[in-house]
Every structure is written in structure tokens, then in C-alpha cells.
Amino acid sequence: MELFGRIxxxxxxxxxxxxxxxxxxxxxEDLDEFHELVDSAGAEIVALITTKRAxxxxxxxxxxxxxxxxxxxxAMHEADVVIVNxxxxxxxxxxxxxxxxxxVIDRVGLILDIFAQRARSxxxxxxxxLAQLRHMSTRLIRGWTHLERQKGGIGLRGPGETQLxxxxxLLQDRIKQLLKRIDKVRQQRRLGRRSxxxxxxxxxxxxxxxxxxxSTLFNQLTSANVYAEDRxxxxxxxxxxxxxxxxxxxxxxxxxxxxxxxxxHDLVAAFRSTLEETSEANLLIHLVDSxxxxxxxxxxxxxxxxxxxxxxxxxxLLVFNKIDQxxxxxxxxxxxxxxxxxxxxxxxAKHNQGMDLLQDALASFFKxxxxxxxxxxxxxxxxxxxxxxxxxxVEQEAYDEQGQIFINMTLTQQQWQQVKRxxxxxxxxxx
Length: 431
Prior knowledge:
The protein is 39% helix and 22% strand. By secondary structure, it is α/β, with parallel strands linked by helices. Helix 5 packs antiparallel against helix 6 (158-198).
């Protein structure tokens, strides 16, 4: 495995899964989600080992008897890898590998592997590599365990220690390079956000637990062609598109990486420049899989990540997706609070159900940032009339006896200032 440049990854083949049911909620992981993660990584499951514990074992994470059961399953199925649905310490990972005689990957390593497969943009690849290197830096000794047999003698300890120090230095040098390159990308994002703020174009960011349907919703609202698939972390790279929102005008819609329970801290740190789109947004669409039995827990997990990236003050609109999968199915609807402000929208992005309700809810949020105007145009101003239809939502259009055009519509403050400078207007006034 190279310690600099792009990290080489071995495709997972047959896997023995290990899941521990802890009494403590903080250590508990979801078994169904574990299966989805393994499927997303491309592994073939040959055995599942489960056990109950009050707390992790210091040596093997599981008890010694259960660890031997894992080793027996690996030998029986000739498995290539053991995947543990929890975060292991470097010592626990190393001890298990010695016992089972194959590669051991914990939950963090599994998620990093999926991210390495799915990253497509230059920025995404840099961020994944940074997270991998940080994770690897605590586990370097595993690659040099063959030198541990050399317990004594002059000159026998040195090579192992020297190689480890060399590897650590290579890792730190590469991490510094990646941080510099990612910082340049972050500066470019800041410039992009600054220009959007100057243009007074509001930003709406779609967030949510992975596989909630964010990319599908993004495609429906923008007519984009972002990759969408029914599996975890189908897309990683943030995508921005300009959208004309009926009743509100132009907005910038951003699609972000999906969140997950107990997301590795290295990933949060590495993707911070991408997640900054969340903290800088005017509104967050918090997308939820309405058919998920753990939807309330996942809403809480997403909220924790929102707090971690400093976006807790950004207004949110809860959008419950996949209503067509509910039993019985639910019709598209909008839940309002006592003041008539939309709080929840129920849709099916895949089947284009409730998109008009969602657009109306978004428009109502930005209503205070827009003004209603009346514009008068000469009869021959067909091009200017077409531009008005492109700029904002036309509420009413009328003609007088001379064929002059009078349009009542909604514009942003910036568009209002822009239209006021048009030549040959009959009139322009707020209504």
C-alpha cells in the first residue's frame, strides 16, 4: 500500500460480519444499516457473528470465546476480511487480525472505503484521502508486525522503528500537502459564496441522512442529472444549481453529502469545506425518509452534525420523502404552524408527488425578501416582456386599448433595482 499519492484499495470479497448489541445506547449501532454499508462497499457476506455485551473487551472488543468463533468462521468460509460494526482501537484491530489471520476493518474503515469508491470530484478525492491518511496514521505498526519477532540483538530493533518513523514522516508530509490543497478549494468556495451574497441570491441546501433521497429531490427541483441510487452514500460531492422558484424568483440549490449515525470525526473534519455550504445557507431542507422506522433517531443524528458544523441557527424545513412507501400511503400535504408558516412537507421525489407544495413552501419562506411590483411596457416591448417572465413570478398581465402591457409580478430587491433602469418603461411601482 502506498503511503503517498492516491491510496490503493483492495476490493472486498467474502466478509465475516461482527455486530455487538451493547446495553449502552451511545455504543449501539443499527444492524440493518450495517448490512447496507457492507452492500455499498461491494462485499459478499458469508457469515454474521452477533453477541451481547455491557462494554467492549479491551483486547478483542468482543470476548475471547467470541473472537475464536470469528476465527473459526473465517477459516470455514476462507473469508477475505472481517468487518466489525463498531469503531476499534488500533490495538483491538491488531489483536483480532493476529487471531483470525485476515484483514480486519472497523466501521470507520468501512465508511472510508465506501467514500474512496464514490468520490468523483477532485475536491472529494482530496478530502477522502485526507481522512484515510489520518485514520491510517494510528495503525501503521500493523504493516510491520513481521519485525516484532526480532526481539533482541544489536541492529535488529532499529529497522522496524526506522521504517515506522519514515512512514509517519511520509504520512505527515502528505497530510500537510492535502491540507494546503483543500484550503485552496475552501478559499474558492468562500469566493463563490461571497459573490452569491453580493448578488442577493438566496441559497437553499438539502441535507439529510444518507439514502433519504437528496439527489433525487435535487434532480426533480433543478432538472439536473446528478447520480442517484438506492444505496448509502451514492453521491459525495456537493452540487450547486440555479433554480427559478415560482413566487420567489432565482435561488441557488445545493446538494450535500449524506449524514450517518456516529459519522467518523475525520470525515467531518475532511468534508468541513463542503459542509460549510450548510452553515452559509439561507434555508435548510432537512430531507427525511418517512418510511424509515428509525426516522426520529436519524433526524436527531443529522441535527448533531448540523450543530457540529455551526449551522444550528439556519432555519430548517422538514421534508418527509418516500410517502408512496408508507402503509397506508399518505397524500402530499403541508403541515403549518399556528402562524401559517410551513413546518413539514410530505412528498415523493421519485414519483414527483408534492413538488408543487414544496415549491410553494419554499416561496413562502422567502416572501419577506421579495416585493410585488407593477410594470408598464409599450406595445412593442416583446423582448422586455419575455425578460420579466424569466426574472420572477408574473401574477397578472393586462393590456389597454393602445396595446400597452401592464404586468403585476414578484421581484427580488436586486431585480427591482435592475428593472427600474430599463429604458422606455411606461411605469414601475411597488404594489
